[in-house]
Amino acid sequence: MNGSSDKDGKSPLSAAGWIALAILLGLLLVSLWYAVKVWTALSAVPMSGWGWLFLCLGVVVTIALGGGLMALVFYSSRHDMDQ
User: Fold this and answer.
1) Same-domain pairing of 36 and 11
2) pTM over 0.70, yes/no
3) Residue 55 belongs to what H/E stretch?
4) What are the pLDDT tens digits along the chain (83 aa)?
């Protein structure tokens, strides 16, 4: 990063950056709390083997699609195609 900010002991983030970081951390914690709450509330709902299969396939396809799109973004950035 910037060598001068490391020498004088100042943080690379401004006050607005720390506030944004705190808000994002709070949103992450609230979303994790809600996910656990919903997951435990639905624990009594039965799901068949086909349901689990398609749930897993949906997760794998979503992650693969996101990874593929990020690869295209990095590729186009490296080869100056995004101007």
Assistant:
1) yes
2) no
3) helix 49-78
4) 555 545 566 778 899 999 999 999 999 999 999 999 998 998 888 999 999 999 999 999 999 999 999 999 999 988 887 77
